[in-house]
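hiii, so i know i said id send this last week but things got crazy w the move. better late than never?? heres the sequnce for the chain we talked about at the cafe, plus the structure i predicted for it. fair warning i was half asleep when i ran it
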Amino acid sequence: MTDVTRTPRPIPAPRSTSAPRSTPAPRPVPAPRPLPAPRRDTLRGTLHRAAARVDAATPGDRDRAVDALRAFAILGVVLGHWLVTALVADGGNLHAASPLQDMPWLAPVSWAFQTLAVFFLVGGHVATKGYVSARARGETYGQWLTTRLSRLFRPVLAVLGLWTVTAVLLLLTGAELATVHTLVKLALSPLWFLLVFAALTAATPLLTRLHPLWPLVVVLHVDLLRFGLGAPAWLGWINLAAGWLVPFTLGAAWTRGELDRRRAGWILLAGGTATTAALVAWAGYPASMVGVPGASVSNLNPPTLAAVAFGLAQCGLALLLRGPLRRAMRRPVAWAAVALVNLSAMTIFLWHQTALMATTAMGLLVGRLPGLHTLPDGLDWVGARLAWLPVFALALAGCWAAFHSCERGTGRSRSRVVRTHRSPGPPRTAGARHV
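okay and structure toks below
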C-alpha cells in the first residue's frame, strides 16, 4: 500500500471578544440635490386653493343657484351690449349703430343675451325674502330699504362724476355735441334699469302677495290700446313698470314656494315661447328683443307684450335650471367665479359701456379699425367684433380695479354677498368671508 501523508489545516485562533472594533471609514458627503424645477401648475394650484377657501367660507344654507342666475343675467346684458352696440367713426364724429339694423337675421342674438327678466326674477325673490328676514330680526322698513338702496346707488356716484367731467372736457376741447350726447347716453343708459329696480324694491311690502297675472293684464291692455285702437304712444311707458313687475312678482311667488314644482317652470317656458312666437309671426311685433335704431317699434323701450312673454319663457328656463345649477355650484372653481361676479355685479353693470367706449377712443389713435369704428353691415364686422371682446373685457377689468371699492361699502352698509365673520373658532376660519 502507498502511504499518503495529508497536511493538516491550521486551526484558526479563537476570535477575541474584547478586541476593539475598527472604526469604519467616513462616508462621502453627497452633493446637494438641485432645486426642483418650478411646477407648471403653480398658478392652477393657487387658483384651486383660493376657490376652495371661498367654497369653505360660504354658508351651507345659501342657495347658490340664485347667485348663478344673477351672474348669468349680468353677463348676458354685458355681452349683449358689446355685440349689438357699435360706435361708428364718421369723420370727426361718433354715432351709435346696431348690426341688427342691417342684419335682422341676427335677432336670435338678442334672444340669448337680453336677460333682464331673469335679473328681475332673482331681484324679486331676494327682495321679498330679505324683507321677511329683516322684519323677523326687528328691522323697520326704512332701515331695510336704506340698506338695499345704498348698495344699488353707491357705485352710481362714481359713474356720474367721471362722465360729468368727461363731457365737460370733451366740449371744451371742441368735440361735437352730437358725439358727446352719444357717449353720455351710452354710459348712463344702465341707470334706467336701476331706477325701475329701485322703485320695485321700495314697493316690495306691497308686492309680496301680488299675483303676476295682474301686471301681465296691464301690459296686455296697454298694447291693445296702443297698437289696436291707436292710443297715444306715450301710454306705452306704463309698461316700463308693469312689464318688469311681472318677473319681479314671479320672484315673490318663488319666495312663497309657489314655483317649487318643475311643472311651473315648464308651463312658463312653453307658454312664454309659444306666445312670443305667435306675437312675432302674426301680430307684427319685432323679432329682436332689444331696440334697433330706426325701427318703428321697440320691444324693450318701453317693454311690449312680446318682450314680457319672452321674459316669462326665460324665467321658466331659469326655474328649471335651479337643480342643475345647484349641483354645478358644488365645484369650488365654478362657485368662486360666480361669487366674484356677484361681488362686483354693480361695478360690471355700470362700467361695461364705459369699457367699450374707452377701447373705441383708444383705437382711434391708431386709425379706423374694423369691428370697432366701422359700420356693422356684414359678417366681416361680426367676426372682427368677436375678436374685440377680450379687449373690452380687459378694459372692464381696469374699470373694476379702479372703482370696485365704491361697491363694497363699510360697516352695516357692506353688501351681504360678502360678510366678514369673525368667529371664536380656530384661526383658520377667523375673518373668513362668507359669500
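btw The two ends are 110 Å apart (CA to CA). thought thatd interest u
miss u guys!!
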